[in-house]
């Protein structure tokens, strides 16, 4: 027991010092007794968790310290690229990392730069097991009882944490998400655990059945909404003017900056906001990954409203079905037809992903093939990061790679404008988030991308001045396509 207590105290002290050093003056460690107690308790739980695997106190203490160090380092890296620390929902994405390592700026485990350190770490753990004696009690039955009892104790704590009074304590301490403030108060491990508990306690119940069909009002036969990967006006990055942007200013019925819920990543946040019209703040702890709670089970999603108004619906995305569980989520949103990577098997690629212009041709082919009113939601892929050496021949600079791809994005949108002209159609395009480039770090443009709405085939009001919106406001504006006659949709200006 003395050995365990000594190791535990060392783990608490070193972990506290690590988080204090990482936070520095930006996130000073709260020394209020209640805040400090929660922080130290999270370190103790980490130590007990690792202790249950080894029954070696100093190995458990070292594992706790390494866990805290790893969380601090990953959070620092994530803040630098995305402007947000590590959060509980990030762990749900871990199964995707080995399947799509490039998308997460890492390498496969078969790469020696990853595999060799992993093997060395496993060898070190094995050596430590051999050098440090176990503190299991003597005798077979006492040892087996201890091995079973500690995991049961931890499982019991997890069970109790979701019920009163511990759940009420979590609700008092973290009533709403405030990541940076809560990490400063309670530390990264405690905040991850508390947010997980709050998410489980507050996530929305399964959605109600779809709403009754509203009367069809507009004259559109086609509504095409395209989410452009990492798209912003390249002049904002110091790049050359894109012809598309002049087309937008001259021909779009509405355009402007689009405030999105994240910088450099988390496509699903913007996607969810547009498809549901829900303000991210209304999602509570589900805001970090809206698809974790109910997937696309929103009865008033754009796809369901389209179906209720007599439209067929299609989702077009030239990438894996399993990424973000997109296929399952889009089915839950109500999309009837999915056109995904296997449908682009013969499409040309630029770098690792399908060419945006090939994507645009497929969108127009879906419009041509439709036998009635169509709602199509598409997500491009060509300009997805990371932009790194070897992606494009002769272009190793990340910004140069991005600007090369964004030209194709602009050409694709212009192809759509020409292809839909003359139809009773609406085209909406928008960027999901700014690119995570070295010259486009968090804080750039207040997480704003660009959007535009084109209307074809009927008399419309003349093009309007720039109107800045949030992603959810854009989603509510698009809902007016199926509003009952005479209804209006209020969309606030920024």
Automatic annotation (TrEMBL):
Q: Where in the cell is it found?
A: Cell membrane
Sorted keywords for this record are:
Cell membrane, Membrane, Signal, Transmembrane, Transmembrane helix
Q: Which residues form the Sulfatase N-terminal domain?
A: 223-438
Q: Where is the signal peptide?
A: 1-20
One Pfam family this sequence matches: Sulfatase
Q: Which GO terms describe its cellular component?
A: plasma membrane
Q: What is its main location?
A: membrane
Spell out where the chain crosses the membrane.
36-53, 58-77, 114-131, 143-161
Record's superkingdom?
A: Bacteria
Membrane topology type: Multi-pass membrane protein
State the InterPro entries in the record: Alkaline_phosphatase_core_sf, OpgB/LTA_synthase_biosynth, Sulfatase_N
Designated name of the protein: Sulfatase
Task: Give the species this sequence originates from.
Answer: Methylobacterium durans
């Amino acid at each position: 027991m003395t050995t365990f207590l000594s190791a535990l105290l060392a783990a608490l002290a070193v972990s506290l010092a690590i988080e204090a050093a990482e936070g520095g003056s930006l996130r000073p460690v709260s020394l209020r007794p209640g805040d400090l107690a929660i922080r130290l308790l999270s370190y103790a739980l980490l130590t007990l968790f690792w202790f249950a695997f080894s029954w070696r106190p100093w190995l458990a203490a070292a594992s706790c310290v390494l866990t805290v160090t790893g969380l601090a380092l990953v959070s620092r890296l994530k803040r630098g690229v995305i402007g947000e620390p590590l959060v509980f929902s990030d762990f749900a994405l871990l199964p995707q990392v080995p399947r799509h390592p490039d998308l997460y700026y890492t390498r496969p485990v078969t790469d020696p730069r990853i595999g060799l350190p992993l093997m060395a770490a496993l060898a070190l753990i094995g050596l430590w097991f051999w050098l440090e004696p176990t503190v299991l009690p003597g005798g077979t039955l006492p040892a087996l009882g201890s091995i079973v009892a500690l995991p049961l104790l931890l499982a019991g704590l997890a069970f109790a944490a979701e019920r009163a009074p511990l759940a009420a304590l979590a609700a008092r301490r973290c009533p709403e998400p405030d990541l940076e403030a809560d990490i400063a108060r309670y530390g990264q491990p405690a905040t991850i655990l508390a947010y997980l508990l709050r998410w489980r306690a507050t996530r929305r119940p399964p959605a109600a059945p779809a709403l009754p069909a509203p009367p069809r009002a507009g004259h559109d036969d086609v509504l095409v909404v395209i989410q452009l990967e990492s798209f912003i006006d390249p002049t904002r990055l110091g790049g050359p003017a894109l012809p598309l942007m002049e087309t937008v200013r001259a021909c779009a019925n509405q355009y402007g900056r689009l405030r999105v819920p994240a910088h450099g990543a988390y496509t699903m946040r913007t996607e969810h906001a547009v498809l549901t019209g829900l303000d991210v703040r209304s999602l509570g702890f589900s805001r970090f990954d809206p698809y974790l709670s109910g997937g696309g089970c929103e009865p008033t999603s754009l796809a369901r409203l389209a179906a209720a108004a007599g439209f067929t619906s299609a989702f077009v995305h030239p990438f894996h079905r399993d990424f973000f569980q997109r296929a399952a989520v889009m089915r839950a949103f109500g999309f009837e037809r999915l056109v995904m990577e296997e449908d682009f098997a013969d499409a040309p690629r630029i770098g690792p992903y399908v060419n945006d212009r090939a994507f645009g041709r497929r969108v127009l082919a879906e419009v041509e093939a439709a036998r009635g009113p169509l709602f199509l939601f598409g997500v491009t892929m060509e300009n997805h990061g990371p932009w790194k050496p070897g992606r494009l021949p002769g272009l190793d600079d990340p910004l140069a790679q991005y600007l090369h791809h964004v030209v194709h994005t602009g050409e694709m949108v212009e192809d759509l404008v020409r292809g839909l002209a003359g139809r009773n159609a609406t085209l909406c395009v928008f960027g999901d988030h700014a690119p995570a480039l070295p010259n486009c770090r968090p804080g750039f443009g207040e997480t704003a991308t660009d959007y535009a709405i084109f209307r074809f085939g009927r008399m419309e009001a003349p093009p309007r001045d720039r109107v800045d919106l949030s992603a959810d406001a854009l989603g509510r504006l698009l809902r007016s396509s199926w509003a009952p006659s005479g209804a209006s949709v209020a969309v606030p200006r920024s």
